[in-house]
Amino acid sequence: MATIYTPKQQRVLLIVSLIVIAGFILVGLRQYTVALLGSGIIYVIFRPWFTALVHKRKWNRLLVTILLILFSVVVIIMPFLALSLLLINRIQYYSQHTEQILQLIDKLEKATGIQLTNQANIKNLVQQGAGFASRQFPSILSGTLDVVISLGLLYVGLYFIFMEEEKFLKGLRKYLPFENDTLNQLGEDLKNMVNANILGQALVSLVQAVLTGATLWIFGVPDAAFWGTVAFFFAFIPILGTPIVWAPAGIIMLSQGEIGSGIGILAVGAVVIINVDNLLRVMLAKRMGDVHPFVTLTGIVLGVPVFGILGLVIGPLLLSYFMVLFQVFERQNRKLRLEGEREQEKLEQKAKRSV
Prior knowledge:
Strand content: under 5%
Helix content: over 70%
Membrane topology: Multi-pass membrane protein
Protein name: AI-2E family transporter
Keywords: Membrane, Transmembrane, Transmembrane helix
Organism: Larkinella bovis
InterPro entries: AI-2E-like (IPR002549)
């Protein structure tokens, strides 16, 4: 029986069907998008090791895949969950014991002579801020199933990417609308972006967090480990970063009469921690690629509301990907324009010869 659709209509309906089905899939998996993105990100991070061990040294592919997965769990997942849980517990504690924060703010107001706001507003702001911060982290108590499913999807995806790497890369080359040279350049650009946004930024944040926590501990600030953890996450934010942590700590110590400790914290922060940050960023930019602070800041603003605390790295990464794809689009248009100009010149020369 003949179809009622023309070939053109069939093609349009096929494309519409694919888009609609893909939309349903994305909507259904929207809360696990981070896990699917994480598979690709971890693959890019560990691909050099995988290539060296499997393709060059001819190690068993399954063994290398399992070792890399276990390594990523120990080095990436477990520390992040531990930091998150530590931060959640302390945030919940301070939200329930706002009198400690109110006392510190009262001392700060007396020391500076500046009236910030009334205590009721401060208490409300602290509770709202604590609630917002808690929602950005994976909660073992309220979201165990979601965390397990997300990690399961992440590592199942990573397993199949490693085990079927050739098919995966071939599929990308087949379905992505780019030429081979463009795909190679795109892959290199994306690798640099991953290294700069994740490896580089995480290393800088870790060093700053350790320095901040150690400084606060040396000068007698309570909960130095907690504030060092806070500094780790704040360090992802350009310009502001760790001064959000150590500057108020120094001022509070001054307001309590601890002049030496307060000056010491502010001096170490301004002279050591900030300069170490700048030095590390310059060194890593040469090795891993550089990302403009405005891109990072904009990516964080976009990423945190969508992806939670992981938006600190995923937001800038997606924005960087957009910029890379835009550069690819620009290169392709330039290439097409040059080819068109050459073709036009050939036609003009041919017309002149015929005359």
